[in-house]
Amino acid sequence: MTQTVVCKRSIMTILLLALLSGAAWAAPRIVCRQPIYLFRAEGNTPMVENTFLIENVGDEPLEITHIYACCRTGVDMLRLIPPGSNSTLHVKLGLEERWGTFVKNVTLESNDPQTPYLTLCMTGTVFRYVDIDPRMIDFGRVAGDLPLQTNATIVFESKFRLNVTNIVSSSPAFTAYFTPNDENYATLTIRTLAPLDEGVYNGEIWLYTDNSVFPLLRVYTAVSVLREYVTVPATLLVSPSATAVSKTVLIRPRHHRPVRVVSVRSTNPAISATCTPTGELGFRCDVRFTDVTANMDNAQIIVTTDDALQRDIVIPVRVGAETTLP
Predict the structure, then answer these.
(1) Which among 196, 188, 293 has a CA at the least distance from the CA of 242?
(2) What is the CATH classification number for the domain harbouring 243?
């Protein structure tokens, strides 16, 4: 083998190694030179928008495989970026029901081996001309037999006024009314509509106004009904009668705390009741109707106990046709 052939082979080996070395180093590179966007929003700003410039400074195509964005965040971009080129990521962040300072992130997942995840940030402060405090009313865990009530305050910026034209509750478990106080604030009173069956109730109170900037204000509501006592039957159903009628209701606690009945009363004077202990924990209520008329419908028998978690046990009365089990 001649020296010339050996040199040619050596040169070819060197070139091949160089090509392989270059291929090994070839990769996409994702860069955003301004990854943080600061903003300030006032008044009726419905959303904030920003366009991030995403560059591929590598020597292989950059592919955005996934975009992770939080709720109320809209994103749009061209996801395949050639080497030496760029793409724009347009982000829309909804500001409805937001106030104060907050931070929202958008993360790009790509085939860049060095930076597989790139996080972009939009942060700022929202100043409202009208604010509601609190925006979420949670009555917590309650028995649900008696109505509960709480207030939210609606604060107006100076010289910025509106009138509430209508109030609507999205859930039948809640109602509300609006009371103007002065030119800077008003009171929204929210009540539960007792009695409520056991379960979790979520809803919204919608306040429609005469102001084009804030035509609708919302307050979120929640209550969890879990009674400490079970009544059998849950509702006392009686048929109309011209003579005296007697019924029995059994009360069983869910807990094992000793409880004493303090008093028993009825919202209708023609209904009387007495409660006696049954065993260690339960009670038996004997209810007597002097007669049964239509005006007794929706009456209540209220058993008051010394239990701090549910002081009143309410037994609703309905007047109608009784169902006889086979």
Answers:
(1) 293
(2) 2.60.40.10
